């Protein structure tokens, strides 16, 4: 049996009429020669009935076939899907999303199910599997050590709140947790992460999802961190805006305060974190546009009120007009004013014609002027605003059709 033990097991199915469905185990081979396999049927049959040792040395190595593990991997993934479905009540779409995003094709067989079982046993919710599908690809020994380490965090309320940190190397995670545990200043909140969450009035799960990508917020000096956070909340910056632009915490509090004061003096209605770290010309341009907007609006508060006044309709009717083409809401009031001034005062269009084609308010004024002058030269006046709003190709096609129609009319005369 020594010769057999040296070979890796592989199944070669013999013809049913020869030996039924009984498989012969041979090993370590490539490029099976089917003709030789059929020509040695008697030898293979003898092997089954008289033992392998007596004839294995006579077998040609051409019969040795490599063993494929694809089927086992497929079974492992399917079992993992079933486990997720039964344990977490995930939909089939959510399960497929997790598997596709996690890249389980590169995971060794047998590790998927054990990893998922450990996560479920640790109380990881289904939202974590959806938001962080890579957790199912973590190796079991490392995952166990990281989960144990997370449980040592001071003030831990729910391990799901810090699930995003599992992707960190073990030593990096240990350093972060050690720093958080050493900060006695935030003991009443639990730790700095929970303090940050409470100040922003956001769930810790959401906050840590962003902090895990910007770990410097958890390691920077407490005074600098608290001062910058206090300033941004004082100037009523939206919590999610702060969370999505955590780089502003790296700026000195004096710079942060100066920029926020300038934005407030410029009567900026919504102050954003990017105003703290943008270049000086960018901030000046932003504040200049704000002043121009306020001058156009006058005593009015919104763009809807301004459009209603120019079109001589009610505010509700103006909202209905803008709803027909939603991009109008993103156009600056100063540009809308320029378009109104040209169409009503110079081009001679009525308020009704403009209200019927609100898309004209989004078009470039330069392009609008150029096209209206061209259309005027062609002698066309009906539906001209609809034509002006078309794409470049559509507009050129319409011009060509109009010219051909005029040529036909001239030839008929």
TrEMBL record:
Keywords: Transit peptide
Gene3D superfamilies with a match to the protein in the record: Transcription termination factor 3, mitochondrial
Superkingdom as given in the UniProt entry: Eukaryota
GO biological process, one term: termination of mitochondrial transcription
Secretion signal, residue range per the UniProt entry: none
Keyword Transit peptide: yes
Gene Ontology cellular-component terms listed: mitochondrial matrix
InterPro entries: MTERF, MTERF_sf
Recorded GO MF terms: nucleic acid binding
PANTHER family, per the entry: TRANSCRIPTION TERMINATION FACTOR, MITOCHONDRIAL
Family: Belongs to the mTERF family.
Name the record gives this protein: Transcription termination factor, mitochondrial
Biological source species: Glossina brevipalpis
Phylogenetic classification of the source organism: Eukaryota, Metazoa, Ecdysozoa, Arthropoda, Hexapoda
